[in-house]
Automatic annotation (TrEMBL):
GO terms for biological process: DNA integration. GO terms for molecular function: nucleic acid binding. This is Retrovirus-related Pol poly from transposon 412, partial. Pfam families: Integrase_H2C2 (PF17921), rve (PF00665). Residues 99-186 form the Integrase catalytic domain.
Length: 186
């Protein structure tokens, strides 16, 4: 009954606060924020993704570039951004695998915990693994302070396997502290 390109159909719709609105092509574009508030931002809106939001809007409304407007609206939503995190990640440097050429060339270390306290009073685990051999060593720790980590690394790991050429960590405070460097260099 309505040829799409020849006529613009006017209808009355009831939107927020029971106010009747007359819709025209130009008016529709101006009322997009009201439509988004009702079908996306309201308590019953749900903050759904792009496709579901388009489906909800198309059930009652349509305008040119609807998809583009919904994408832009969803991308600018503070609640969705906080919940979903950034939409694109900028990689600062390309990731590359490290190939060790010999044992003890590079050793990875990390601390796991806190865990339930053991009978000996330990609640952390120090993990050291050689990149070349993939040999893991695990040590129980009472705390994760730099001094404790350094003592265990030197007394348990280095005394048995020798000093690694390179020590790789996640740059946690227990590995970047000034206390750990003299212990491992000494």
């Amino acid at each position: 009954d309505l040829p799409i390109r020849k006529k613009i159909r006017l209808e009355e719709w009831i939107l927020a606060e029971n106010r009747p609105l007359s819709w025209t092509y130009q008016g529709m574009l101006m009322l997009c924020p009201d439509i988004f508030d009702l079908l996306y931002d309201s308590k019953t809106g749900g903050h759904f993704g792009i496709n579901k939001t388009i489906g909800k809007i198309k059930g009652k409304f349509y305008w040119p570039k609807l998809r583009d407007d919904v994408k832009k609206w969803c991308a600018q939503c503070d609640l969705c951004s906080a919940r979903k995190g950034p939409t694109s990640r900028k990689i600062k440097a390309p990731l590359a695998s490290y190939v060790a050429g010999s044992p003890m060339e590079r050793v990875a270390v990390d601390v796991l915990g806190p865990l339930p306290v053991s009978e000996n009073g330990n609640k952390y685990i120090l993990i050291a693994m050689d990149y070349f051999t993939k040999w893991p060593e695990v040590y129980a720790l009472p705390n994760q302070e730099a001094e404790t980590v350094a003592k265990v690394l030197v007394n348990e790991f280095v005394s048995r396997f020798g000093t690694p050429v390179e020590l790789h960590s996640d740059q946690g405070r227990n590995f970047e502290s000034r206390n750990i460097r003299p212990e491992l260099r000494g």
